[in-house]
Amino acid sequence: MESQKRLSSKTMAFVLAGGRGSRLKQLTNNRVKPAVYFGGKTRIVDFALSNALNSGIRKMAIATQYKAHSLIRHCQRGWSFFRAERNEFLDILPASQQVNEEKWYAGTADAVTQNIEIIDSYGIEYILILAGDHIYKMDYEVMLEEHVSTNADVTVGCLTVDREEASAFGVMAVDEELRVTSFLEKPADPPGMPGDPDKTLASMGIYVFKWSYLRELLLNDQELEGSKHDFGGDIIPYIVKNGRAQAHRFTESCVKHKATAEAYWRDVGTVDAYWRANIDLTNFDPDLDLWDKNWPIWTYSEVAPPAKFIHDEENRRGHALSSMVAGGCIISGTEIRNSLLFTNVRTNSYAQLEETVVLPHATIGRHAQLSKCVVDARVIVPEGMVVGEDPKEDARFFEVSKGGVTLITQGMVDAWSAAQ
After folding, report:
1. Which residues, including other chains, have CB under 8 Å from residue 22's CB and lie 6 or more apart?
2. Domain limits of the chain?
3. Where on this chain does alpha-D-glucose 1-phosphate bind (predicted)?
């Protein structure tokens, strides 16, 4: 255990949080994907940061680029408890044109390259590269231990996925010792695993390097013509060919709320996946345990009074069944089923919500009926608006996903209201 503590104290977590996440459609019009709300109180980025904190890592940095204000403000408010005098910190590294006046972050590796001088000043031995846009719980110390014990040049966090589904990922062929023999981006015919040809190892976008080794690689890659300066596209394939790349199975380090639970990891990068992961939290025994005090998910929590339910009349009864309702909500004569409401949502009499995710500070008008929807933050749903019964009619004004989830933003509501 002592060696684990020493490794985490020598490690920095570098979170890549610059991508828009365009598959989330209008949810990322005003915020980067890692800053999108999730689970009633948190943001997506809180999971990578909390994993690092719970793993004993106290040095972190977040590289930002696209519409970063919401993310920066969240980190300033919710993650400002680090103390420099204890040699701990969370730094925000916007794309600040450090190489030249025209160059922003050109790729995931370039985001690290442009901050080499800053990282050097931290005096670290290992660097942990994290994607800031996935939902999971993981003890990074276990991965660090494996990286050191196998004498790897890079250790890649991997999911075990069905071979027929692996074409959507960067996948790895490995030998019996889990040494990576090839790294392929979204191949048409993914390789199977030794002893299990129907399964494939897919990259989670999590990498461990010794900093001195990665530093030299990044400087060399910076000078290569034709390089996209990307970890998955350039850096990892180079190490597979010229060094030792080790695969680390997520099942070895995932944090479960019970021994029989499956390893939980979700890419909530589409509206359908985002809706499903949030609604799954309303299940009787959800796969993701947000109540686990041994592995808490830290966040900025608004000061809000408890949720309030009012009115008890026929068809005007404020109640919620199989749902999650955050603080500050006032459920006034509304029927809510299998839904998730974030902080300070207000619902009015005779409204009905079913399988609906409502982001903070939204208001649901009287007699509104929403089914299988995602309502963006601060949206005011007008009185009597019905969404979720007629997909073709909904698609005239709202964003309807392939899975039949309707995304509602204020601009869409304004268009709907103008047409009435």
Report:
1. 28
2. 7-282, 308-419
3. 105, 170, 185-186, 203
- In angstroms, the Cα distances linking 289 to 44, 128, 257, 340, 351 are 15, 24, 6, 15, 30
Residue 199 annotated in ligand binding: no
Lowest-confidence region among 46-60, 216-230, 304-318, 401-415: 216-230
What does the alpha-carbon distance between residue 127 and residue 129 come to, in Å, rounded to a whole number?
6
* Structure tokens, 158: 């991997």
Computed over every residue of the chain, the mean pLDDT equals 92
E strand or H helix that includes residue 410:
helix 410-419
CA gap 257, 41 in Å, rounded: 19
258 assigned ligand-binding residue = no
What is the SS3 assignment for 400?
A: strand
349 marked ligand binding residue: no
Establish whether 185 is an annotated binding residue: yes
- What pLDDT does residue 53 have? 97
State pTM to two decimals.
Answer: 0.94
Q: Amino acid identity, residue 143?
A: M
Task: Tell the CATH topology of 308-419.
Answer: UDP N-Acetylglucosamine Acyltransferase; domain 1 (2.160.10)
Residue 242 is classified by DSSP as H
170 annotated ligand binder: yes
The two tokens of residue 40 are 């009633």
Provide, rounded to the nearest whole percent, the portion of the chain with pLDDT above 90.
78
- Whether residue 5 is predicted with pLDDT greater than 60 in this model: the reply is no
Strand-strand pairing, 134-136 and 265-267: antiparallel
Tell me the pLDDT tens digit for each residue of 388-415. 999 999 999 999 999 999 999 999 999 9
- What is the Cα–Cα distance from 405 to 27, expressed in whole angstroms? 13
DSSP states along 103-172: ----SHHHHHHTTHHHHHTTT-SEEEEEESSEEE-B-HHHHHHHHHHTT-SEEEEEEEEEGGGGGGSEEE
